[in-house]
Design a protein that fits this description.
alpha+beta; three-stranded antiparallel beta sheet
């Protein structure tokens, strides 16, 4: 018997056969199969626990993100509401906004809008980008939140909303109409 066989002898004893879940092997080499089986089951168990942990953590982080976006939407100032109203007024998913505007940047930082693409256009020396509303924020945005009148688009309400539009948005839209016509 060499040293390799001496190391296996304690593992391959008759006491192991008394446990019902351990198979009875005929050859000593089969003990390695048992060790591989136990190791594989251990690795699968560990991987399963890690998967469940990551899934729970992802769900928890997503719920925290939704709460943060919702609370930020409820505390918007008038300039930020005017920027979000532009998506409804222009009836587009992507609108051109100045990339370095403070209100636009605060909405991006809050996760309410996102920069989809930089443009090679400028407005008064400021670079423009195409922005869209994030999916999470779109779930919580309503006309009441953006201070649209409940009675609908009467001429007075339309004039009021037009006066509340950001100056840069009116100029950008006017320039686009000129270039596209």
């Amino acid at each position: 018997m060499d040293s390799f066989d001496i190391g296996i002898v304690p593992l391959y004893s008759r006491k192991c056969y008394s446990l019902p879940w351990i198979p009875k092997f005929e050859k000593p080499i089969c003990i390695w199969a048992l060790l591989i089986l136990v190791g594989s089951i251990s690795m699968l168990t560990i991987e399963g626990v890690i998967y469940v942990y990551k899934h729970i953590r992802k769900t928890s982080n997503l719920n925290q993100y939704r709460k943060r976006v919702r609370s930020r939407l409820e505390s918007l100032n008038e300039d930020e509401k005017a920027i979000l109203r532009e998506f409804i007024i222009q009836d587009r998913n992507l609108i051109k906004l100045p990339v370095d505007n403070a209100n636009v940047l605060s909405l991006v930082d809050a996760g309410i809008i996102k920069l989809s693409r930089y443009l090679v256009e400028f407005h008064l020396g400021n670079p423009l980008g195409l922005f869209s509303i994030t999916e999470t924020a779109s779930q919580f945005i309503s006309q009441e939140l953006l201070d649209f009148p409940e009675e609908g688009p009467t001429p007075e309400n339309i004039e009021k909303i037009q006066r509340l539009r950001p100056h840069f948005a009116v100029e950008i839209e006017h320039k686009d109409r000129i270039w596209n016509s």
